[in-house]
Amino acid sequence: MEFITNSPKETEEVGKNLVKELKGGDIVLLNGDLGAGKSTFVKGIAMGLKIKRTINSPTFTLMNVYTLDKEINKIKKLIHIDTFRLKDGEALLEIGAKDYVGQKDTLTLIEWPEKVQKLIKDKAIIEIDFIQSEENRRKIVVKDEE
């Protein structure tokens, strides 16, 4: 699946609409340069899951956990992980990420996933690439690797 967006709002909409394709237990790897729209996309996913809390990138906290008011597609929790500042995934293990990643009631979104291969090893994943061609124009490519 491929999408072209021309604004942050359109990138959010793609995330919001993609929720119907996701389910509990999915691990979504978000690949792209800094500023490519990954966190904006996560806000859209949260909108699609009807999460009312403010969605901030966990660049400094490493992981944010959001509990849904009502289960959607067997999803009860959204986990947003950002490993930009990490050398490897050890810090994520220390804060308990392993307790969430891949759980059947949890949707996990990981920015900069190349740093956490040990955490996602042997798990079914969906990869999404964000390619920025102009200031607000992005190509979003969804690759299901189940």
TrEMBL record:
One GO molecular-function entry: metal ion binding
Principal localisation: cytoplasm
Domain of life, per lineage: Bacteria
Residue ranges the record marks as coiled coil: none
Membrane spanning residue stretches: none
A Gene Ontology biological process term: tRNA threonylcarbamoyladenosine modification
Cited Pfam families: TsaE
Gene Ontology terms: cellular component: cytoplasm
Compartments in which it is found: Cytoplasm
Keywords, in A-Z order: ATP-binding, Cytoplasm, Magnesium, Metal-binding, Nucleotide-binding, Transferase, tRNA processing
Sequence similarity: Belongs to the TsaE family.
Identification of the protein by name: tRNA threonylcarbamoyladenosine biosynthesis protein TsaE
Organism per entry: Candidatus Magasanikbacteria bacterium CG_4_9_14_3_um_filter_32_9
